[in-house]
Design a protein that fits this description.
Length: 356
């Protein structure tokens, strides 16, 4: 057989699809070697798949297709390789935010406990304390940062990277800037992963001391993606004083522990009602639950934020209370939270991606 016939073999192989795929085995890189003489054709296949039957089917298809070359000996050698596991892929994937020093996730087991409020005010306070801060809204299901931070525009694009907004002294990015907020989005796992990766890697964050990540409630794909794709310095769990919210906080905590992300502590939000008239604090729910949970779970209690209409107004009007009154009562309590976060990361090297 001549060299031209070897080309003919490649042609034939290009016509063979991997079972269930629209791509051919050559473009997948599954054909290692083709050798052809006048009497004999030899093909080496090396296929990375978790489905050995599919690889055998490819071998059979190759043998059958090469039969058209006529009465010559056809030898197909097949090596089935185990594809890299998810953990290996994570270890091999590039750092999406190499210029970010410390990433802190704000999480909760339950919705509506004030994660976005805490994340926003914490980020603004860290900025006021002189740090370079980014705030990432990873709540792709219900992004609320555009409203809380007071931005109602589309981000600018430079080349193929999005430019984060800068407001209240911090950089901010949210899918809410891009999505039509009135259209419910149905996300499936891989889409969640892709969207979050883009919010990290395709945004021009620049060098940052802190990135605060506002997570959706619960322990789903977004939380897993963040903990797999970002070297998290730690997670802060927000809870309200009611027992049920505390139980959910435990779930959130257990998840981060499972993926080896240190839980920096628990913040109790809406822990008492500050009367706008007399300034006195009333415990609407049971008090001290956050501190008790923290003690039971053996993680630090970072502090509490009272239920105050001024905090809600700040969120609704796009001027976080800490930005409106940096030295006010809440400005001071968020300063304590921010200092606890700074203390929590200051002894740490930039962590490696967690593999589990
Ligand atoms: N300490 C507080 N005092 C008064 N209102 C608050 C306080 N914390 C949060 N809120 C209000 O409670 C509502 C829910 O808060 P937020 O959106 O921050 O919660 P979340 O945990 O991020 O919710 P989701 O799970 O939907 O993302 C908002 O209207 C917010 O302004
Ligand atoms: Mg939220």
């Amino acid at each position: 057989m001549t060299r031209a016939s070897e080309e003919r073999v490649w042609e034939i192989l290009k016509g063979i699809k991997f079972p269930g795929m629209s791509r051919d085995i050559v473009s997948f890189g599954f054909v290692d070697r083709v050798e052809a003489t006048a009497e004999r054709v030899h093909v080496d296949l090396s296929i990375a798949t978790g489905n050995p039957e599919a690889a055998e089917k490819v071998r059979a298809d190759v043998e059958q297709a090469l039969a058209e070359l006529g009465p010559i000996q056809v030898e197909v050698r097949l090596e089935v390789r185990t594809p890299p596991s998810a953990a290996q892929q994570v270890a091999q994937s590039p750092d999406l935010i190499p210029e970010v020093q410390h990433v802190v996730a704000v999480a909760s087991g339950k919705g509506g406990v004030g994660k976005s409020t805490v994340a926003t005010n914490l980020a603004v306070k860290l900025g006021q304390l002189g740090h370079r801060v980014g705030l990432l809204d990873a709540d792709i299901y219900g992004p609320s940062l555009p409203m809380m931070i007071g931005i109602d525009e589309q981000p600018k694009v430079d080349g193929n990277r999005l430019i984060p907004f800068e407001k209240h002294g911090i950089k901010v990015m949210s899918l809410g800037f891009i999505l039509d907020v009135d259209q419910p989005v149905i996300w499936r796992g891989p889409m969640v992963m892709k969207a979050i990766e883009q919010m990290l890697g395709d945004v021009d964050w620049g060098p940052l001391d802190f990135m605060i990540v506002d997570l959706p409630p619960g322990t789903g794909d977004a939380q897993l993606t963040i903990s797999q794709r970002v070297p998290l310095s730690g997670a802060v769990i927000v809870t309200t004083p009611q027992d049920i919210a505390l139980i959910d906080a435990r779930k959130g905590l257990a998840m981060f522990q499972k993926v080896s992300v240190p839980v920096m502590g628990i913040i109790e939000n809406m822990s008492g009602f500050v009367c706008p008239h007399c300034g006195e604090t009333t415990d609407v729910f049971k008090s001290g639950g956050g501190a008790r949970t923290a003690e039971t779970l053996g993680c630090p209690f970072l502090g509490s934020v009272p239920l105050d209409p001024a905090i809600m107004r700040g969120g609704d009007e796009g001027v976080p209370v800490v930005a409106a009154e940096p030295d006010g009562f809440h400005g001071e309590s968020f300063k304590q939270l921010a200092e606890a976060v700074i203390a929590g990361v200051s002894s740490q090297q930039r962590p490696k991606l967690s593999i589990f």
